[in-house]
Description:
Blueprint: H1 39-68, H2 82-104, H3 122-147, H4 156-159, H5 166-200, H6 202-215, H7 226-243, H8 247-264, H9 271-293
Helix pairs in contact: 1-2, 1-5, 2-5, 3-7, 3-8, 5-6, 5-7, 5-8, 5-9, 6-7, 7-8, 8-9
Amino acid sequence: MSTAYPEGLPAPFVHPAPPSAPELPDGVEPTSLAPDWRVWMGFSALLVGFVAAAVGAVILTLIGGAFDGSVVASGKLANPSPAVNILATVVQDLCLIGAAVFFARIAGRPRPWDFGLRGTRFWPAVGWALVTWGAFLIVTLAWVNLIGADDASEKLPSELGADKSDLALVSVGILVCVIAPLAEEFFFRGFFFTALRSWKGIWPAALVTGLIFGGIHAGSSNIAFLVPLAFFGFSLCLLYAKTGSLYPCIAIHAANNSIAFCSSQGWGWQMAPVLVATLALVALVCWLVRRVAGPTPAWALS
């Protein structure tokens, strides 16, 4: 039923409806709008990221050596300081993120949800995340018993100089528990696995991603534990495929790293506050990213 207005009088102003998330065309499924990332992009980003990280580490080591006098007459460098080691590792993580974004742009402007930065159903995600973590712990325990290894502690905190000062300890803790999980999940699950699954599907992509994920930890973990770490990387890919979101993967990765970090320091009750602080910081970073990126379209939600 329409309302007539007296001749000569304007109709009252009607506020336009607020803009809503873009709708999908008829017949188009969300899965068909997955980013068109190819397998060569994933491997190229992996290579470029680590080469750039190696160059950055050399530059930081030279700069650090020039300042602290560790450059000797032969032109060789002594062991870098904890600050240089920590910064070099941060640069490595940033290079991985940068390489992923760079190669993703070849297929078009990447959006945060293309990398899995999108919401999902909370309780199912929690359940699947705990199943993933539990499976990793069971495999690790079985592997330790099989090979008879007795030292599962992480070497990375000591190699980064966490024992040199309280500031170094806190810096290494943030790096290991917060920065590394964010960067590694963004690259390996958000980009690399996504590029590979467009080639041969979920299972082969998860297997390859897991093997590479385990391999890159050869310098920071006991070599005997690379197999469980490869399984962890494989399982995180399946978790991402199941939930459609990178957030559960980041949370489990951060929680696992925080416990491993505390174990490397011989801590007991300190694990609880470190775990809570780690998850809070990770949640804050993810929230800030979502605030900057803007709302996720309804069709991109899991």
